[in-house]
Amino acid sequence: MGLRDISVWGYSAAALACLCAGGAIGWQYLVEFRYGLDQDLSDTTTESYFNLHVLLMYWLYLLPNALGAISFRAFTFIERENAKRLHAFFNTIGFIASIAGFVLIYKHQQDTYGDYGHFYTPHTYIGMITLALYWFQWIAGVFLYLIPWENFLSKDNMMRIGKLKGGFIQSHRAIGYVCFALIAVSCLLGFITNYYYGFTKNDPNHEMKNVLPFMNKSLTLIFVGMMVLLLLIVNTKYVRPKPKDTYKPQETTTLQAVVPNDKDVEKPSSTF
């Protein structure tokens, strides 16, 4: 393991540790002050039903996205194709969870507040932009880089797909960076909104002195984890090394193979 691998694993471990610790503290707040998952989850108007949205969007949307970004860089001990499949697997978990989390929160807001508007916080607007970009990224990634087109297309069409893949790869990476940043920012804004919304519940235990330790620790750790991971994925020194080209010297025809040996050439006859 070289310096590059040690750095990648160090950044990855630090980022994941911060993100998991921040999420755990945020969830502990929900358990202590907002019922956790103790209420009837079949009732879409309960706090616990709302907490499912937090569970899906943080633990099954943000974190798999982070793991997807890390896996392609850190897991150099597995083949590139397997790392690509692992990257796709993590992002597919995020894709499914993001859809479920969106449907869930839309239903909760509709059933709880009726005609009250859905879009009234920065978390909502940034979250919607993030979902649209992430869904586009997932669909484009599957279409271009996961489907084995060589089994279905002609050689000419495969050349067109190859040009499209090569032309889009830089955009795919850039959109991936932006997606992770937006997901993390959206989660931060969601936690902030949720913390301050708790003060409107007229709960005597939900006082600033009780809530601030949860809020400060969770938000700080999530922010630090987000920044560490961004430092990793945007640094070109830590991209996955390209496979080494295996050079096989081309067999060349030797002069001896072209020019016959003098011994094998019959001497001209002296008779006419």
TrEMBL record:
Positions of the Cytochrome b561 domain: 14-240
Cofactor(s) listed in the protein's UniProt record: heme b
Main location, first listed in the record: membrane
Transmembrane segments: 7-30, 50-76, 88-106, 126-153, 174-197, 217-234
Pfam family, one: Cytochrom_B561
Alphabetical list of Gene3D superfamilies matching this protein: 1.20.120.1770
Subcellular location per the Swiss-Prot or TrEMBL entry: Membrane
A molecular function GO annotation: oxidoreductase activity
Example of a GO cellular component annotation carried by this entry: membrane
InterPro entries: CYB561/CYBRD1-like, Cyt_b561/ferric_Rdtase_TM
Membrane topology category: Multi-pass membrane protein
Stored PROSITE patterns: CYTOCHROME_B561, PROKAR_LIPOPROTEIN
This protein's UniProt keywords: Electron transport, Heme, Iron, Membrane, Metal-binding, Transmembrane, Transmembrane helix, Transport
Coiled-coil residue windows: none
Domain of life: Eukaryota
Name of the protein described by the UniProt record: Cytochrome b561 domain-containing protein
